[in-house]
Design goal:
Shape: globular
Strand order of the largest sheet: 3-4-5-6-10-9-8-7
Structural class: alpha+beta
Radius of gyration: 16 Å
Order of helices and strands: HHEEHEEEEHEEEE
Distance between the termini: 35 Å
Helix content: 25-40%
Length: 182
Amino acid sequence: MMMYKKIIAAGLLWTALTASAGAFDYNQSVDEIAANPLTAYQTVYLGMPRADFDGNFSVLSDWTFYGSTVSFTEKAERTSVVKNVSVTEGIEIFSADTSAKGRVLAFDNYFKTKDKATAKSIYTRLVATIYSNMENFPVKQSDKEVEWKQDDVSITVAFDGQKDSDGDYIVYIRRYNNKILK
């Protein structure tokens, strides 16, 4: 029964993420991520086996998968250019160990762009959508970060308005278990 659920979940992920092969709509991705902030794309969740993440993202044609057998992190990214603005969407997991059975302890979705207005728009949309889907009010809020806690999980959305070393503005949403990571 569990195997069928995994196959169905992988199929749904494949359909959802390849429906617009080529150029993805980052606003749609923001909405999908924020609709259920405890997961990502309805398939990535805290405690999932690392092998499931590998299996889901290594087969998607419009995502570049960066797997590793020696690092505690793995990620996948895809990029789209719309109206001369490039946006890279990514997901990165942090696992307890490097084996296939290693459990995901935390994961980030992120959006990178050289355009500050686009990054600010993504941040605003993430925060607004999560606000409407969370049971609780934020436990911490500033102009750069909003954090919610639901049961044992912390959810943080952040955008500091500064470029990184590659000249990108980065907006991220991080989820982690409060009892394991602080």
